[in-house]
């Protein structure tokens, strides 16, 4: 089986090189000012220029405005936008038509009912990302990247968790638990951010290497 990995929240040339050289299928750039991983469109344009076409570039954002999207896509070519806010299916459809890029819709999971929400986006998103539902936004808690995991059995028990769409598993993953997470959930793609950091927003090249090496090793199991 093939397992793809996305390294999210990258903000330096060194960590992008580590992700690309390590075999990441996707790299993520965060556009959300409260996040310690936030970067400006100008910085992203500079960093994204080094990413080969074989690796998808993903812009991660929360309830973006049309004005922001227009300005961003006038400066950067992104393959996907990952939406972590309260975007309705109608809004996701509008964004998809506006930007001409793929959509990854994040679904925040704490119960089986949350998993079923993915079905609402099957006609307007290209992929779904299942992440842990934060207890409450604010006081350092973000829409994603909080190093929080959820019960992976909620995904594994669902016959078709994403309504036929490809999906990624996120939330508290690291080199030590990604194998178990994949086994329990049945994920074929994983997304990591805080699990390859030494501090919030500080990616570590060695941790990126170790995570990607571990994911690659799972493909033979």
Protein model, in words:
32% of the residues lie in helices and 21% in strands. It has 221 residues and is α/β, with parallel strands linked by helices. The protein has a single domain (4-218), classed as Alpha-Beta Barrel (TIM Barrel), CATH 3.20.20.70. The strands form two sheets. An eight-stranded parallel sheet has the order 7-6-5-4-3-2-1-8. The chain has a two-stranded antiparallel ribbon with strand order 9-10. Helix 1 (13-22) packs parallel to helix 8 (205-218). The mean pLDDT is 92.
State the gist of this model.
This protein is an alpha/beta fold and 221 residues long.
List the helices and strands and how they pair.
Elements: E1 4-7, H1 13-22, E2 26-31, H2 41-48, E3 56-61, H3 66-75, E4 80-83, H4 89-99, E5 102-109, H5 112-116, E6 127-132, H6 153-156, E7 167-169, H7 178-185, E8 189-192, E9 197-199, E10 202-203, H8 205-218
Helix pairs in contact: 1-8
Key structural traits:
two-stranded antiparallel ribbon, 221 residues, alpha/beta, 32% helix, globular, eight-stranded parallel sheet
Mean pLDDT: 92
Strand order of the largest sheet: 7-6-5-4-3-2-1-8
Say how many strands there are: 10
Helix content: 25-40%
CATH architecture: Alpha-Beta Barrel
Shape: globular
Rg, Å, rounded? 16 Å
Looking at CATH, the homologous superfamily is: Aldolase class I
Largest sheet composition = 8 strands, parallel
Question: What distance separates the N and C termini?
Answer: 8 Å
Structural class: alpha/beta
What series of H and E elements makes up the topology? Answer: EHEHEHEHEHEHEHEEEH
Low-confidence stretches: none
Number of domains: 1
* CATH fold title: TIM Barrel
Question: What proportion strand?
Answer: 15-25%
* Count, helices: 8
CATH class type: Alpha Beta
């Amino acid at each position: 089986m093939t397992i793809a990995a996305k390294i999210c929240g990258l903000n330096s040339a060194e960590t992008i090189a580590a992700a690309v050289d390590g075999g990441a299928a996707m790299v993520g750039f965060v556009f959300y000012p409260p996040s310690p991983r936030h970067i400006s469109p100008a910085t992203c344009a500079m960093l994204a220029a080094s990413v080969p076409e074989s690796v998808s570039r993903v812009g991660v954002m929360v309830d973006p405005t049309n004005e922001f999207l227009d300005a961003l896509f006038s400066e950067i070519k992104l393959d996907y936008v990952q939406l972590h806010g309260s975007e309705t299916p109608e809004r996701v459809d509008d964004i998809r038509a506006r930007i001409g890029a793929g959509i990854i819709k994040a679904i925040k999971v704490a119960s089986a009912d949350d998993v079923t929400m993915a079905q609402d986006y099957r006609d307007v998103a290209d992929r779904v990302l299942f992440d842990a539902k934060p207890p409450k936004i604010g006081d350092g808690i973000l829409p994603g990247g909080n190093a929080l995991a959820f019960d992976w059995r909620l995904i594994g028990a669902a016959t078709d968790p994403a309504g036929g769409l490809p999906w990624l598993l996120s939330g508290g993953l690291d080199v030590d638990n990604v194998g178990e997470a994949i086994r329990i959930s049945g994920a074929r793609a994983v997304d990591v951010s805080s699990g390859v950091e030494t501090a919030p927003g500080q990616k570590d090249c060695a941790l990126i290497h170790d995570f990607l090496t571990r994911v690659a090793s799972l493909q033979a199991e």
